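Batch manifest, entry 17 of 40.
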Amino acid sequence: MRLKFQWLTVVIGFLSVVGFSQSKKNTIIPKTYVAVKTTTPIVIDGDETDAAWSKADWTELFEDIENGIKPKYATKVKMLWDETNFYIVAKMEEPHVWANLKQRDTIIFYNNDFEVFIDPDSDTFNYYELEINALNTAWDLFLSKPYRENDNVVLNDWNIPGLKSAVKIHGTLNNPNDIDQGWTLEMAIPWAAYKTSYFDQNVPVDKFWRVNFSRVNWQHSLVDGKYERKKDADGKFLPEYNWVWSPMGVINMHEPEKWGYVYFSSKEGKDNFTIPQDEKVKWELYNLYRAQKEYYQKNKVWAKSIASLTKETISIDHKILKPVVENHASGFNIAVKSPFSNQTFIIRQDGKIIQK
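Output type: structure tokens
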């Protein structure tokens, strides 16, 4: 992905400019999905014809990460779960299926790939990323904080224990002499991979996790009969396309507060999920957080009042929010009391929300 930031620390400053330039009027509304529980075994073979998958609905087709435009090639996902695994199947339309990266934990997005982002507790800290290409080569990593924070820690050595994944090519891999239909990726991610302690009960029964999916797709050239990422006249790689389930509004997957909501239902048959009102309160805090960061970039000091960050009345479903900003030696806090639950939410200068 363009501005992927795994290794490009020099770009972090630019990310802060891009990521915080979004106004309140452009607030992203995350997508939602109800994942039903399956008791039918699933064979991870890259084929979505298992009987269990018939219980799951396809997501809406993926959109451009920044502007929500429908991309050239279709991508869609199904999700299921049981007491052991989170199951995902992704179906991608692609007339030229190619991949050449075979070493695990290499930078997989240098090939066309499919990516999974998961934040179990919805605090934007300590989240997980998984990338897989058409050769079924995986790159899994753990991030302590989003890349917008300069002191984030990326654990590239972290692997998902027990991960199962398989790819089925609808056509022929790495063959430029024909036109393919695409490829299907099926995976089972053990809940145990997301345990924070030995006794952690982390199977999300009738709970939501923040999740998003991204598909990276490059323009290609043929060099000596082999696929390669296409370059411009100056020899630089052309930017890739980023197609996602829940659009971000910026070319950056690492704003977890904008990811979709996956609700893991234990109900027999269809179930409904509505984003809790307190989540919308958190969205407004993140708008103020971005505005505060932008204010600092312009003025080299933190704003001392909410009025310096927004001229608009902040409301949710006709309920007025009254946030308060407090500056301190190491940054700032912005606090607001939810009119829906009477819980107080505080966002810190590092982007973490604390609930009191």
